[in-house]
Write a structure and sequence with these properties.
heterodimer, A: about 775 residues, alpha+beta, Aldehyde Oxidoreductase, domain 4, 19 helices, 28 strands, B: Ubiquitin-like (UB roll), DNA polymerase, domain 1, five-stranded mixed beta sheet, 5 strands
């Protein structure tokens, strides 16, 4: 499509600064008189702090101050919070242990924050930290997820003596059990959803600044949602009231969920800035990021699926144990519950579903939302069990899926969600064509001739995003509403600034949001600027996660644009001396119906500000409108990904030979950007399936705490991807957008493991399917075949 | 503190620095050239790649003092005002970046790749050569396309110049 409006492949407006080295990330910000913070972290996974002696360290060169948990307590700095209340099966609330920003009395994971040293230089802060004497009394570490609640286990938080955070459920147990009794065939699987470390390339960072003249704080931070950070730091942690705390999230180098949360380091930097009377800067090194960024996934699941004599799915039951780490991170409790179990129906018409989730504490880093957050875990369960069931029944996996697809909409699942629209057959059909599934048999024979095993795996995923209707999430325990805000400011010369509560950290909002505005107002895209990430500029917003910026953030802009257009029509009616109802607006021109009288948008903007054509009694001057948009439903992107792998049985190396993604994201604003989001998501999913995994040893030491030990996907681990689309516009928002940010990461792990198990001829492989694991599995296949 | 002098993006710079100062710290902190990033501190991710005497190196594991008298080019030294280096332009055209954090290192590595291996780079070569550069956003798909196109454009410029 030509032009720059919705649907055009517009080059990104933000790119010039990034490709010329002019980006402005938090670590690029330096304040006058700035000091540097270094956190002394616990080397123990679980220990009582007997004493912290900072005397020697305090006298070392360059040291400006040293703060510990005692100072946090003295200053009554509130603890870090978990903002989503989950109730147990019996209705009682989850058990949330206290989470001080600097440890008090006890440390609960390796990397927990014991003290902060603030010095003239980072090197001096590190030197002084080495001189702090901490006496620990180590306690047994609870590391293994499966045994974290067993009788007699060490208690991590006194509020949860058995380390259980909650024991939650969703669905109709009786109906599900009844369906299983009548089942003709039952498929059972046990799955591990491996623990991941997000690894945005920009490590977390913060600069805290305090203006004593104004008694006001500024925090520059790597946040996906600066307003939520301000809200939590004000209302719960008590740093300062909101009007005295400005949070700025400038260019942010990737988030993937890990920069949603309000962490100890950011909190300490802004609090400490007042304590030491100078700006305080902290930048994580990569090992600190591995140790202290919230991790993702980490589930153990047993799932069962019941089918009737016709191969129709009649019920599913799922039992999951989720690791939430040592403390409840900001939204952690919602991830294995409301972002997980409501997606267990997948794309399938399943009359009865019952899910039980037990969340536990362990002496590991907190676990929270990571790209997809709960939905990749749900998709992995559904798409693995569906695949295994098809294989057990001797049915073609695509045919089995098609037989069980939901075909009419809206569709109410037994687990909360009401799917509004979709065409799952269409995505499957297109994916199979694009992938040339028909040619697979030949490709498999060719691989066999070369001594290789070839496999093909599907993943027909659905997700719920565009998060979320505020009243609905409120009823499920959320502490906040999940609307979005926008303000459209038209300048007198007709250029436009759009203030949004969404936050771009790679998604390209400066381009896509401008495409919407330029197209709607009929002005050049160069005349539109997007303003975000500063609580002093944008009044309020909920930020970017859950693939919500398009469906929710842009919908708020549409609402504001509606108001701008309505006001501009009033101005135009005075300029054109016509009745307001006779004014049309199209292609940037206001015209009087049935005449050749017209005036362009820029002239109307000028007239709105000079206010010469109307009186104050007739119309208020200016052209600036704001809106809040609260979605009426989740959106439901869906699609089919097909993975094709080739395995060398002699080395165990799995090569991704071919990848096809056909997604239904509803209306697409910029296909180039959407494809990029899909590529990145798939890469993270392939990373989970083949390479990545956080490994703690029995003592709770993180063994994968650098890029030498944690296998990040490199360019030569991945293929180029075939990405295509089908489209059913979303009916619940004005643009028909569903969201695309997480889909790749949600779909791909199941497709990968389905392909690998197809190649190996048995189901016994866990993620990450490393060469060693695959080699062992391949040898087992050969041994079985030889029997 | 010892003194170190070098040429950065054509400009002679010198400073007295702590002997343990890394080249990336010298560039970012002393010279306020913040386009060069630190993503891992262990020489794996390549966000810190700059050119020293025409060769790509990782500035997060290079001592500033070891670059005495060297000719250093950073991401800020590639474009001439609005006039982009063809590799920079290719990254924009092919959407080879999202968050932009790894991008300066990617571009510096890509140019070095072309300098060493020529203008006609296969997908396989590019993927192999990117071993020392990690991107978490793009899945590398568009980075590979951008480098291939950028290399060809550099070749075209060389032909045009001859």
């Amino acid at each position: 499509m030509a032009g720059t409006g919705i649907g055009a492949r517009v080059e990104r407006k933000e790119d010039f600064r990034f490709i010329t080295g002019k980006g402005n990330y938090t670590d690029d910000i330096n304040r006058e008189g700035q000091t540097h913070a270094y956190f002394l972290r616990s080397p123990h996974a679980h220990a009582v702090i007997k004493s912290v002696d900072t005397k020697k360290a305090s006298g070392m060169p360059g040291v400006v101050g040293i703060l510990t948990g005692a100072d946090i307590e003295k200053d009554k700095v509130g603890g870090l919070i978990c903002g989503w209340m989950i109730n147990n099966k019996d209705g009682s609330p989850m058990r949330a242990g206290a989470h001080p920003a600097l440890a008090q009395g006890k440390v609960r994971y390796v990397g927990d924050h014991v003290a902060v040293v603030i010095a003239e230089t980072l090197a001096e802060a590190k030197d002084a930290a080495e001189a702090i004497k901490v006496t620990y009394a180590p306690l047994p570490a609870v590391v293994d997820l499966a045994s974290a609640t067993k009788k007699g286990i060490t208690t991590i938080h006194d509020v949860a003596p058995d380390n259980q955070v909650y024991d939650w459920h969703l669905g109709d147990k009786a109906a599900t059990d009844a369906a299983f009794k009548k089942a003709k065939h039952v498929t059972k699987i046990d799955l591990v959803n491996n623990r991941l470390i997000p690894n945005a390339m920009e490590p977390r960072a913060a600069v805290g600044d305090y203006n004593s003249g104004e008694d006001a704080f500024t925090l520059y931070t790597t946040s996906q949602n600066p307003h939520v950070a301000r809200l939590v730091l004000s209302a719960f942690i008590g740093i300062a009231p909101e009007h005295k705390l400005r949070v700025i999230a400038p260019d942010v180098g990737g988030g993937f969920g890990s920069k949603i949360f309000i962490y100890a380091e950011e909190t300490v930097c802004v609090w400490a800035a007042k304590k030491v009377g100078r700006p305080v800067k902290w930048v994580a090194d990569r090992t600190e990021a591995f140790l202290s960024d919230a991790h993702g996934r980490d589930h153990l699941t047993h799932a069962e699926m019941a089918m009737d004599e016709n191969g129709k799915i009649t019920a599913m039951r799922v039992k999951t144990r989720a690791n939430l780490g040592a403390y409840l991170s900001t939204f952690s409790s919602s991830v294995p519950t409301y972002l997980y179990a409501p997606l267990l129906s997948g794309q399938y018409n399943i009359p009865a579903i019952y899910a039980e989730v037990e969340a536990v504490y362990t002496n590991t880093a907190p676990v929270d939302a990571y790209r997809g957050a709960g939905r990749p875990e749900a998709t992995f369960v559904v798409e693995r069990i569906v695949e295994v069931a098809a294989r057990e029944l001797g049915l073609d996996p695509a045919t089995f899926r098609r037989k069980n697809f939901i075909k009419s909409f809206p569709h109410q699942t037994p687990v909360i969600m009401c799917y509004d629209v979709g065409d799952y057959d269409a995505s499957l059909k297109k994916a199979m064509e694009v992938h040339d599934v028909k040619g697979f048999a030949k490709r498999k024979r060719d691989s066999a001739k070369a001594g290789k095993l070839r496999g093909l795996g599907y993943s027909a995923y659905i997700e719920a995003c565009g998060i979320a209707p505020s009243a609905a999430v409120g009823s499920l325990g959320a502490g906040v509403g999940l609307w979005e805000s926008a303000e459209v400011r038209v300048n007198p010369v007709g250029t436009v600034e759009v203030l949004t509560g969404s936050h771009s950290h790679g998604q390209g909002h400066e381009t896509t949001f401008a495409q919407l505005v330029a197209g709607r107002l009929g002005i050049p895209i160069e005349n539109v600027s997007i303003v975000h990430g500063d609580t002093d500029k944008v009044q309020m917003g909920m930020g970017t996660y859950g693939s919500r910026s398009g469906a929710v953030g842009m919908s708020a802009i549409v609402k504001a644009l509606d108001k701008v257009e309505a006001k501009a029509k009033k101005v135009a009616s005075f300029v054109l001396e016509a009745s307001e109802k006779d004014i049309d607006f199209k292609d940037g021109k206001f015209s009087v119906k049935g005449t050749d009288k017209s005036v362009d948008f820029a002239s109307v903007a000028l007239q709105a500000y000079v206010a010469h054509k109307f009186t104050g009694a007739e119309l208020e001057p200016g052209l600036k409108e704001g809106a809040f948009y609260d979605p009426t439903n989740f959106t439901f992107p869906s699609g089919v990904h097909i993975a094709e792998v080739e395995i060398d049985p002699d080395t165990g190396v799995t090569t991704v030979a071919k990848w096809t993604a056909v997604d239904d994201f509803g209306v697409i604003i910029n296909p180039m950007i959407v494809e990029g989001q899909v590529h990145g998501g798939i890469a993270q999913g392939i990373g989970q399936a083949l390479l990545e995994g956080a490994v703690y040893n029995d003592n709770g030491q993180l063994l994968t705490a650098s890029y030498m030990d944690y296998a990040m996907p490199r360019a030569d681990d991945l293929p180029s991807f075939r990405v295509d689309h089908t489209t059913t516009p979303c009916p619940s928002n004005p643009l028909g957008i569903k969201g695309c940010g997480e889909a790749g990461a949600i779909a791909s792990p199941a497709a990968m493991i389905n392909a690998i198990t197809d190649a190996l001829g048995h189901e016994n492989i866990a993620m990450p399917a490393t060469p060693q694991a695959v080699w062992k599995a391949a040898q087992a296949s050969f041994a079985k075949a030889a029997e | 503190m010892p003194k170190v002098s070098m040429t950065v993006n054509g400009k002679r710079v010198s400073a007295n620095v702590d002997a343990r100062t890394l080249l990336v710290q010298f560039l970012r902190d002393e010279n306020r050239l913040t386009g060069t990033h630190v993503g891992c501190d262990t020489s794996q991710c390549g966000s810190c790649v700059v050119h020293v005497n025409g060769k790509a190196i990782k500035s997060c594991t290079t001592l500033a003092l070891s670059c005495e008298g060297a000719n250093v080019t950073t991401i800020e030294g590639l474009a001439n005002g609005q006039d982009l280096h063809p590799m920079q332009a290719a990254f924009r055209t092919h959407h080879g970046l999202q968050c932009g954090f790894c991008t300066p290192g990617m571009i510096m590595s890509a140019i070095d790749m072309v300098n060493r291996l020529g203008f006609d780079l296969s997908e396989e070569t590019i993927r192999h050569e990117l071993e020392g550069n990690i991107c978490r956003c793009t899945g590398y798909h568009n980075i590979v396309k951008a480098i291939q196109a950028g290399a060809a454009a550099m070749g075209g410029m060389k032909v045009a110049a001859e």
